[in-house]
Write a structure and sequence with these properties.
Layout lengths: L1 E4 L4 H21 L9 H17 L4 E5 L5 E10 L2 E9 L8 H12 L5 E5 L6 H7 L3 E11 L2 H4 L7 E2 L5 H12 L5 H9 E8 L2 E8 L5 E6 L2 H13 L6 E8 L3 H9 L3 E11 L7 E2 L6
Parallel strand pairs: 4-5
Antiparallel strand pairs: 1-2, 2-3, 3-4, 5-12, 6-11, 6-12, 7-8, 8-9, 9-10, 10-13
Helix pairs in contact: 1-2, 2-7
Length: 293
């Protein structure tokens, strides 16, 4: 097996994307769920996300190839102001259990060895939690919320929450530093371009929530208080188009305010996966991004 850096090319981005699709498709099957279909637009978005991380963290992105040169696994990690995050770790189903994942994880951990803090959103594969715990991460079970938004039950957001944009970068970074010890920095530039952003900022505190442009998923949320977090999540869910099923992933037990919002909105709750932390307590109020954490 050979480990090589992910190159800043469309070909390598597509290689990583197809590896992820194959690995996560297998994970869905293990849980008895249908794989998530990917449109051309979503595939292009995924490639852009992969290349964004490669350009900012080339030493944290790796592809594993077998003796024939076939790509069998990939990993991406990034460092933002001393906070290391594992954005992706995938291995083809046919070669799982052969040490590919461990080798990729080790390479990304070496990239972040100088960081005091680390975050991972654990994949659905049964072996993932074991590997991350052995790497020194604390495992925090999570809830996934999904369904059509019941706007009447959700009620209105208490206080002002408005559409955000590039002008809000200082606010976003400030909230990040308070919650997770390091700002997302350039990742906010990518998120603002590709997502809807809701922000709140007044005497009660500051907060933000990203929602995918199609309204199908909450991508990242941070706030300085539960009150503000409730406000921006409520406002974001009100912005979900009628008839669109929305998903809120990686909600830890510390985020009971988010559970309350989800219940009011009529979303279905189920236990699923872990968010893994090293060197910090679970941020709250906070809902991490799987890729940008």
């Amino acid at each position: 097996m050979l480990l090589r850096p992910v190159r800043d090319t469309e070909d390598d981005a597509e290689t990583v994307r197809t590896l992820a699709e194959a690995a996560f498709g297998a994970s869905h099957e293990l849980k008895g769920e249908a794989p998530d279909p990917r449109s051309a637009a979503r595939a292009a978005h995924k490639r852009a996300q992969i290349l964004h991380i490669v350009r900012h963290d080339p030493a944290g992105c790796w592809i594993a190839e077998d003796a024939s040169g076939r790509a069998v696994g990939a990993a991406q990690s990034h460092i933002r102001e001393g906070t290391w995050g594992l954005a992706l770790l995938v291995v083809l189903p046919g070669v799982q259990g052969e040490g590919v994942g461990r080798a990729l994880l080790q390479r990304t951990l070496e990239y972040g060895r100088g960081c005091l803090r680390g975050i991972i959103c654990c994949s659905r594969h049964p072996a993932a939690a074991r590997v991350y715990r052995q790497a020194g991460f604390a495992l925090h079970p999570t809830i996934r919320m999904r369904g059509l938004v019941d706007r009447a039950g959700l009620g209105s957001a208490e206080g002002a929450a408005v559409e955000g944009g590039p002008r809000d970068r200082d606010l976003l970074d400030s909230v990040d530093r308070r919650l997770r010890g390091g700002a997302h920095g350039p990742d906010h530039d990518f998120l603002i371009r590709h997502h809807r952003l809701v922000v709140a900022d007044d005497l009660a505190g500051s907060g933000y929530c990203y929602l995918t442009t199609d309204g199908s998923r909450v991508a990242l949320l941070g706030a300085t208080s539960r009150r503000i977090a409730t406000r921006v999540l409520t406002a974001a869910l009100h912005g979900v188009p009628e008839g669109t099923e929305v998903e809120v992933q990686d909600v830890t037990a510390e985020q009971q305010w988010a559970v309350d919002v989800g219940l009011r909105a009529g979303l279905e709750l189920r236990s699923e996966g872990f968010v893994c932390f090293r060197g910090l307590r679970p941020p709250s109020p906070y809902i991490p991004s799987g890729a940008f954490l």
